[in-house]
Fold this protein.
Amino acid sequence: MPGTGRAPIVEARAVHKHFGHLHVLKGVDLVVAEKELVFLIGPSGSGKSTLLRCLNRLEDPSSGSVTVDGIDMLDTRTDINKARQRIGMVFQSFNLYPHMTALGNVALALRKVQGLGRAEAEAKASAALDRVHLGDRADHYPLQLSGGQQQRVAIARAIALEPRVMLFDEPTSALDPELVGGVLAVMRELREDGMTMVVVSHEMGFAKAAADRVVFMADGLIVEEGNPGDFFDAPKHERTRNFIRQIERH
Amino acid sequence: MTGWERFTDSFFNARVMAQYLPKIIEGFGLTVVLALCIIAAGLAAGLALALLRAFGIRPLNWLIIFVVDLFRALPPLVIIVLLFFGLPNAGVELSGFVASWLALTLVLMAFSEEIFWAGITSVAKGQWEAARSTGLGFLQTLGYVVLPQALRITIPPLTNRTIAITKGTALASVVAVPDILGAANAGVSFSFNPSPLTLGAIAYLVLFFPVVVLGRWIESRFAWKR
């Protein structure tokens, strides 16, 4: 069993999600251990992004339980804004604030959520930008940066808050092929620094090289999971085999 | 008298103009004050309603939408007349200035609420999600992330609408307010010569032309840096 012997950072149990008549998640369990990198894959509409968004409650699960770093995320008494600082999230479309510089994007939550003074927040923000190798782009606005650079600023914005786990929702899907590498390299470095990560992505090469565990979802359920070697070389289920074949044809 | 002489004597009569210029200048001052009061109160009320609407409280939003649609549908002159001639029957006497201010403020509030609201909803959902995911609260996200972007988008339509409605200050002359048009009309009546109207037109140009230019400048000033 993966993650054995280490305390779970993320523990989602029997998570269901309905959107009107659509039953998007049909009872999903996902446990992520400290420093583990879990890769979520599956066809579009399988519910993998919804599951990710249930972890920091950007979506409210219809039922089930979600615990992150010991905090019950679904308890109405939980201070959700406080809890979310421990969960960094990176989006497919970057979602940088266009009216702020790279530094401003990273410093905003440091100042307004963590209450740091301007100087301290900007020092921390600079350090975060250095970690994604964009220290020299601190005063650039998002529209002055390439897609890959924007995504790395978005990663800096999340890691500046020193989260316990990072969620990546298709972080390279909106990027031109030549810009993907830089983002994946930063994610590799994060992993080497011991960050716990849950990644929704179609970058199978990255999954094979960096993931501890691959989870395959279809139709709102987890079909199969395992370490990347077993998963890609000897998938057990027919659906998994079909999916891997389709992906690898590209 | 040739046609051209008749024309200049009617519309550019120097003697009449000189005589009524002081009155027009007084009217100009009054129009400026009235316009500034309308802009300040109307935009503030419109923004407040749009922010209130962002909370998504259903019954409150229905009320906001009803009020906004009401004042967008009624002609401003009808509102002025109702407030000025109607309210005294309910025991509330408003001066012509206050009735005009209130009526045009309500109209600007209604139109600017719709513009602010459109600006707020045009900010991508991902902006909300990114901000909330870093722990920013609803109001912080609205104030630091969404509103600054929404306001930029709203500047062109807001400038146009504000100019259109503040030009409605001319309607105040109907309820005996000596604004630019009121003063000009009075001048025409006393002198039997329309030249004061020409002065009035010039006064409106002097007043609103810089506003239009200022609107353009603000637009370019606040464009995204690329």
Q: What stands out?
A: The two ends of chain B are 62 Å apart (CA to CA).
